[in-house]
Amino acid sequence: MSHTISLRPVLAGGRNVAFELAVKRVMDICVSAFLLVALSPMLLIVALMVRLTSPGSVFHTCDWIGHEGRPFRGWKFRTMIPNADSMEAELRSRNEMTGPAFKITNDPRVTPVGRILRRYSIDELPQLWNVLKGDISLVGPRAPREHEYAQFTDFQKQKLAVKPGITCLWQVQGRHRISDYDRWVELDLEYIATWSLWLDIRILARTALVVVQGTGV
Fold this sequence. Notes:
mainly alpha, two-stranded antiparallel ribbon, 9% strand, 4 strands, 48% helix, two-stranded parallel ribbon
């Protein structure tokens, strides 16, 4: 597929797209700033848990690709052993996701503390800094890693027509059931095609439910 989806033509028809996107950005800033301050005691405790239970840095940084192919440095709490990236090639035969992404059940690289952080999506919280900076949004298609993006087809690149996010439809609709990366992209394109502030609020609410239920592994 060679066509490209963008927000402007999809949201035409009387809606003030520029205003809604401005409100989305204000919401990103306010919510991310509030959560970074409100959750700072918990973030400190998590950082200490990661530091004291596994050798290596507290944070895992990764080169991700954002809106329209722009690279940025993403932040997460480290949930894997220090040499996890170098082990990915050895585990490639166990990959459960078709396409450029990598996902396996019971990943041996994940630390005991990391499993807890992943279950409740706590490892994602440092990305609030990326939201505050404007690299990503609270809601939007998940940003691919740099080497994943290098393998993208033209169809898959369409998901970067908008700013990536911490959470998305994939997070709340069948994250554990989807093993086809193109199906994941289809959900991202569905989000782009039907985007509204109300949709973002609904996804955030459903994400909160997923986090509370501990189904984020």
